[in-house]
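Inverse folding, one chain.
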């Protein structure tokens, strides 16, 4: 149960159906068998307000501890909900069009309120990456700015908006996708930046968002050779997650990986090995492992052979349960 709490997966991964738009007996049985910590919904799962509200309400009623119900709703090009006109939510442009802190705060507050009414309690936004390299189109106009300080101001304001809405928010994609040479969806993404350069640049918006009270930080599958000295992705690097994010940036909230079914991971690691290394690195939540049961099995095997300790698992699970309690996902 503890290990499953550390997973956020799609409803399709949970039940095995091709496209999930309902939560019924199959979902109830799957949640009992695989008591995951949360589910993430995509556009294919969202038909209309009544349907998604009932789907979420049902699955929450099946969960003993309550679920994170997550979505990628950044505004602009990444809008799983607002892109569906039937949902009737506020439509925002890309974050690059946001003019000032007041507008950024309104984005967070409005998106949070819009999605909360359907039952979502976690948003994988705002983007804290900076569009610092004009040749890098991975993030582009999804970022608030091409300037580190401006991005920091707007990220912090957006987080404040989410805090007012009551929806948990996530800074992504640490340590920063704005200066990488590729998209980690389709292979390794590398940055040549040094730790000193990142502390003065990429980390500035993350620090501002952390100071504003961001609940989660999503760690990307970004290779930072000049920081960690190897090709290990940031999501699997103890130096990035524990030493830098927790140590240098003083983040004590939840650390979630970017989707573990991306090519940057699956091309180089088995589901079991990737899961173990992410937990060893200090991640609390594994997002969408390529093979859920293999990921859980890998962690359980690592506990048996001593390469992971139960204390390490407890540390993450207590953090997860505390966040759920504070957000009202678990009733006191």
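Residues assigned per position:
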């Amino acid at each position: 149960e503890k290990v499953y709490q550390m997973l956020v997966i799609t409803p399709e991964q949970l039940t095995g159906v091709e496209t999930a738009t309902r939560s019924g007996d199959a979902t109830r049985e799957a949640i009992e068998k695989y008591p995951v910590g949360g589910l993430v919904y995509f556009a294919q799962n969202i038909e209309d307000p009544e349907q998604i509200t009932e789907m979420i309400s049902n699955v929450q009623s099946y969960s003993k501890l309550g679920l994170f119900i997550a979505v990628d709703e950044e505004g602009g090009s990444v809008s799983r909900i607002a892109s569906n006109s039937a949902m009737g939510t506020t439509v925002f442009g890309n974050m690059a069009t946001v003019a000032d802190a007041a507008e950024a705060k309104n984005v967070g507050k409005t998106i949070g309120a819009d999605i909360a009414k359907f039952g979502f309690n976690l948003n994988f936004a705002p983007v804290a990456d900076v569009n610092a390299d004009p040749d890098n189109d991975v993030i582009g106009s999804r970022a608030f700015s091409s300037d580190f300080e401006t991005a920091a101001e707007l990220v912090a304001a957006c987080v404040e908006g989410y805090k007012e809405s009551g929806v948990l928010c996530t800074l992504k994609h640490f340590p920063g996708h704005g200066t990488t040479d590729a998209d980690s969806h389709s292979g390794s993404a590398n940055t040549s930046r040094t730790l000193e350069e990142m502390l003065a640049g990429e980390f500035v918006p993350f620090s501002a968002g952390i100071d504003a009270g961001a609940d989660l930080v999503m760690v990307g599958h970004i290779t930072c050779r000049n920081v960690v000295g190897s090709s290990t992705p940031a999501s699997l690097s103890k130096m990035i997650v524990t030493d830098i994010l927790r140590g240098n940036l003083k983040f004590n909230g939840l650390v979630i990986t970017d989707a573990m079914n991306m090519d940057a991971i699956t091309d180089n690691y088995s589901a079991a090995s990737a899961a173990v290394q992410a937990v060893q690195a200090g991640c609390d939540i594994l997002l969408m492992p390529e093979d859920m049961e293999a990921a859980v099995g890998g962690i359980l095997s690592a506990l048996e052979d001593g390469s992971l300790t139960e204390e390490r698992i407890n540390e993450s699970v207590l953090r997860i349960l505390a966040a759920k309690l504070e957000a009202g996902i678990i009733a006191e």
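Residues 215 and 253 are 6 Å apart (CA to CA). The radius of gyration is 18 Å.
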